[in-house]
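User: Can you write out an input/output pair for a complex, sequences first and structure second?

Assistant: Here is one pair. Inputs:
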Amino acid sequence: MMKERRIRVLIAKPGLDGHDRGAKVVARALRDAGMEIIYTGLRQTPEMIVEAALQEDVDIIGLSILSGAHMELTRRLFDLLNDRNMSDIPVFLGGIIPNDDIPELKELGIAEVFGPGTNSEVIVRRIEEVVLGDRSN
Amino acid sequence: MTDLIEQVKNGQRRAIARLISRVENDESAARDAITKLYPLTGNSHVIGITGPPGSGKSTLVNELTKEIRSRHHQVGIIAVDPSSPFTGGALLGDRVRMMDLAGDDGLFIRSMASRGSLGGLARTTGDVVKILDAAGFDIILVETVGAGQAEVDIASTAHTTLVIETPGMGDEIQSIKAGILEIADIMVVNKADRPNADRVVRALKAMLRMGKGYKSTGITHHHGKVMDIEEMASNPVDNGLVWEVPVFESIASEGVGISPIVDTISAHKEYLLKSGEWELRERTRSQKEIKALLTTRLMRQLNYSVTQAEHDKLIGAVARREIDPYSAVDKLFQQLKDSG
């Protein structure tokens, strides 16, 4: 029987900053690595992101945040994921995230933080590890 | 799996999403799911939206959905984008144009990658339609990949096909070429605020007039029923049996021109039911589905009954002109038959 498993990734930009170049670069790198990327565009609320993640049945969520609101947005997102029994979906972050905040973000449940200039191969490999290690079907 | 299917029947959204992935990824799961859900399907009006890349399909789907939702229908959306033929990856961006639709429980949007299919849909799009149908969505919008001339699979998946054109895509000769214009039940000239929109509308109307009377036989020809073209042409409006393809203008980005299109989508459903065309289209869809599944099955049987080495040997022989391709196929077919 034919099986064709592809990693599905939601790339979203929560919050009010209007720059999605980084998000698009990552989306493209993941596409080139053979993944299916659902790109949702700018100014997404955590509610919209969780809804899209549910409907699209993604394996992992990537957030790009440049606004400095990463703590609030991440907390809200995890609350919503918990409410909907979706806390099994790993979440990674990109954008401008101060190093000092990373331990707390990981505490909240963020799987990985990719800062500016991270090699896209590193991102691809890490996502594959997280997803394929997490969900085997 | 059985639990998942039960949850889909109850319209549980995460179960719907999960089952769609299973069906996309795994043929035996698809078989299991569709066998169980098929008796519950057949209640949705399936509407196809097709047209060239950048013609505004997603924006139009967004606007149509808002209007249809205001009329209290449950809407499922399947938006297909192309997979890369090189890496198999895909960037599915249709949701960007559908942000307005967030936060609505009467709506379910799913993006699909085409995964190598060339007809404008993915191989499993028809199965995903059935899942949404069984889950209780009474209207299902299927947006194809950006389509040019030959991507016409949508016509046998949808009951009603909207073909979107825009000004500035080419001269009138484009509109008389064979292809997606022939599958239109409703034509929409989007971005109608652009120069020359009226010319595009005129060209399309002229093209459709040329096909007057033929259109209905055109449909029925596609769908396997034989009708007398002369008779149809001399009697073009016969108890509403002929559907005259209307041409609408819209500016989807501003929400202009949407309501008449939705009215006409409903009118088309009524026409299909009254004229008997609905049943014909269901037959055509069934026929194509059976054929596709049978083809897959036969190819698999062939791969099973002929070893790769034997296959390669024949390929080499044809390449060296020791045997012609027809005779090579005779040999392969004989082995297929012998394998029972």
